[in-house]
Amino acid sequence: MKHSIFLILFSTLFACNQKTTNGKTLVVDVRTESIWRQGHACIGVNIPLPELEKHKSELLKYDTVIFICETGKSAQQATSYMNAEKEHTTIFKNGISWVNYQCP
């Protein structure tokens, strides 16, 4: 089951890469670090939602950034926040829950 879920994620990331200029995609878990440490996806990085502003310039270096969280609500907030500014070429997407990709 985990292998098929991984293939779905890989296919999603691959599809995102095909639509971008240089294929740089990043998965960002926007939950707090303490919650992230309790369990997290095997891919991506942790940037808590309140810290997005501090990392904005780093995120804009990617062609595509996919936000994930527990339920999708915080990921949607991150996506909306980053897409509010139209002065960039980065594609920000609301991803799926990290739970499907947790580390063994």
Automatic annotation (TrEMBL):
Residues 21-100 form the Rhodanese domain. Transmembrane segments: none annotated. Gene3D superfamilies: Rhodanese-like domain. SUPFAM superfamilies: Rhodanese/Cell cycle control phosphatase (SSF52821). It holds the Pfam family Rhodanese. This is Rhodanese-like domain-containing protein.
